Amino acid sequence: MTGDRKTLDAAHDLGRLLLGHHGRYRDGTLQDLVTDLLRDRHNRRGWIVDAVNGSLLVRQKLAYALRLEPRRLWSKAAFPLRAAAVTAAPRPLSLLCPTRNRVDNLNAFLRSVQRTAAAPGRIEVLCYVDEDDPALPQYRELFDRARGRFGAIGRCALHVGPPIGVAEAWNRLAEHADGDFLLMANDDQLYVDHGWDVALDQRAAELTELHGDSVLCLYFDAAQYPEGGCDFPIVSRSWYDTLGYFVPTIFQQWEVEKWVFDLARRLGRLYPVPGVFVEHRHYQDYKAPFDDTYQRHRMTRGKSIADHALFLRTEQQRVAEVDKLAARIAHGRRGDRRDTKPSEPLPEPLAGRARRHYRALIDELHAGGQPRAAADCADLAVRQGLWVSALHRPAELHRELPVRMDYDPADFWFTDRLADRHEAIVEELRAAPIGDRLLPEGGREAGTDHIELYRDGTWTASADALPVLRGVLDKIPEALLFPGATVELMLQHPPTRQPACCGPGNAHLRVEFGLVVTAGSGIRTGDRTRTRTDGGCLIFDDGLEQERWHQGTGPNAVLTFRVPHPDR
Q: How far apart are CA 377 and CA 359, in angstroms?
């Protein structure tokens, strides 16, 4: 009797899943059912998933032969007529594609990009694969042969790293991207319409002309979405540089794209690229087989509900991000004005006092969540001749020194010494009393703590338990032997974001050495955005505007100090 009951239950589950081929019978309970079956795949009920996946593969092949391939051929035949009306210059484009255990899917995706782009040579496809991916050898083989298989694409690059989740993988890839536009991509996409890249060029050119700036968020739209729907955001370089990230990492998955599109809607900068169809072979639409990758990253309604609740709680954070983008837009418009000339510089010491007051006011406005007002003040100060750049605002200004957004750590002898002693310093730090703050389960409130280790020519009591760190820095005289030298330990407990601010002067460079770095942290200096690395140094002009954040899961520890400017 028990066996009969199990057989009936299995038949019932199979029937429910097969009915899902009709949209009328798809609901959230099917998602939960598939999750249970995938977890039980190697036991008695695994055959159900295999049977349903067989039907999905048949459906997928039919869709390609009867719907997608005819559309591709028709769009290619019609492309010369559409291209004749295009006046926009081609832009470099970056497709960002995390992938896991889907080598065949990625191969199909790359093939679709190459076959449908009118100018594939200006396109780069960056892919992130987890270092524990069972298909990693096959991915390496695919990319080793990429030049032969996908030679028309400008660059195909494989990035292998620790499992950090899809959102953080998109961000990691964005850091390596060179394109004017960053396109969210997935290994379950197929590009269908020929000349999609030219359509993006033309749309971007029209919108840039309309707005006078390039702060844009777009999406491909061929009427495949319900009214008001959109998918896979495309953001401009200006958008990315302003926010310092491609997508937020606070969600498990579901609300990542919704965050980006919500910012764009609030800003009034969300636009479709009409007439371009990109097939999304999503399991929920019965366009792809159910596999372990979907279970790993997406499936379960509970996670979906938790993500949506978090999205609702973070409205004020999204409002603050929109303000940053709006400030960038306003700054760009002011920068285009031809009738505004900088005033003659004020005489010293009046200029020095004015710079100190302006710097304090601008930093206070940033701290109060008023980036637009802060940008207005910075622009006014530039027009009054106090600074040359609104993003470089040292109170103690040395005009003879060049302004550079960053420096190569390899040009500084002491970075090798820090790297060599990195593990010993971290071991010592974890054993010290303050090491408790680096425990993931430490229960610390979100925020950033600054622990002073050195000031006024002496080490502080907080440095007593850190003899290895002290010994390393004692042998770097540039860090300690000048008036006002300080050494700090910065502890970041996520989620945290420090307001933008500038250092006191440009006579020194800021050095930030990542002792303990987890995914989700970064820094913007001026108009450059970078991610920290474990055991890596960032070096930049301390007079630049600096904004730091950590949206990951574990605490970070960063050693920070200054050294004299090399051109003094």
A: 9
CA-to-CA separations, 113 to 6, 82, 95, 156, 271, in angstroms, rounded: 46, 19, 10, 11, 22
d(Cα 373, Cα 323) in Å, to the nearest integer?
10
DSSP state of 277: -
- The DSSP 8-state label assigned to residue 402 in this structure reads -
Q: Which residue from 449, 536, 550, 542 is spatially nearest to 495, judged by alpha carbons? A: 550
Residues of the chain with pLDDT under 70: 1-56, 60, 63, 222-228, 282-302, 332-345, 440-444
pLDDT value at residue 35: 63
Supply φ then ψ for residue 550, to 5 degrees.
Answer: -150, 110
pTM higher than the cut 0.70: no
Cis peptide before 90 (omega within 30 of 0): no
**3-state per-residue secondary structure call for 287-333:** CCCCCHHHHHHCCCHHHHHHHHHHHHHCHHHHHHHHHHHHHHHHHHH
Rounded Cα distance, 546 and 498, in Å: 9
Give the integer Cα–Cα distance in Å for 268 and 115.
Answer: 33
Number of residues written out for the chain: 568
